[in-house]
Amino acid sequence: MNNFRYIIEQPNFIYPRQELYDYQNNHNGYKENIHFKKARNLNTATECKFFDLTDINNIHVQEVLSTLNCKDGKFTKVVAGGIMPAHIDPQRTAVLMLPLTDTPSPIVFYEGDKEIFKHIYIMPTIINAKIKHGVPEVKTDRIFLQINFYEPWNEILERFYK
């Protein structure tokens, strides 16, 4: 199977993992994920244990954004015992996922309700946000810095697949 429909791993992308982890870990600005709260009327604090930190005013985050020539992103945290419901991102087309915790639970891509691809993050990875995806089980806290892209997937593929 050609995995490039779903993901593009970035083994050579270097990022200040510990500094990013420390920044988000010492920040008290995590909030419920607003998208699932509004679109699905979920209490993401209790039903999903899924939170976002949108304050990216940090030198290390800004360095990552500058390296990629991107403008926005956010930290996400799904606490052990939570889930990220299956969804298609409404605006962004792709997301560079920078893992900040070890052995994060895998992302699963779906066609309808059928699992079609599963990925375990062992390095920075760009995901295709326009294919239904989610994280149905989180055994240990799952924390990422997400960098947003809005170009079509074929342009992302050309830009990042080397």
Map the helices and strands.
Elements lengths: L6 E3 L7 H9 L5 E2 L1 H7 L3 H5 L1 E4 L5 H10 L4 E6 L5 E4 L6 E6 L7 E5 L2 E6 L5 E4 L4 E3 L6 E8 L3 H8 L2
Antiparallel strand pairs: 1-9, 2-3, 3-4, 4-11, 5-10, 6-9, 6-11, 7-8, 7-10
What does this structure look like?
The chain has a single domain, classed as Sandwich (Jelly Rolls). The model has no long low-confidence stretch (mean pLDDT 93). 24% of the residues lie in helices and 31% in strands. A seven-stranded antiparallel sheet has the order 1-9-6-11-4-3-2. Strands 5-10-7-8 form a four-stranded antiparallel sheet, with no helix packed on it. The chain is α+β, with helices and mostly antiparallel strands.
What's the domain count? 1
Order of helices and strands: EHEHHEHEEEEEEEEH
Unreliable spans are: none
Ends distance: 18 Å
Please give a handful of descriptors for the protein shown.
Jelly Rolls; four-stranded antiparallel β-sheet; 162 residues; globular; alpha+beta; 5 helices
Quick recap of the structure?
24% of the residues lie in helices and 31% in strands. With 162 residues, it is α+β, with helices and mostly antiparallel strands.
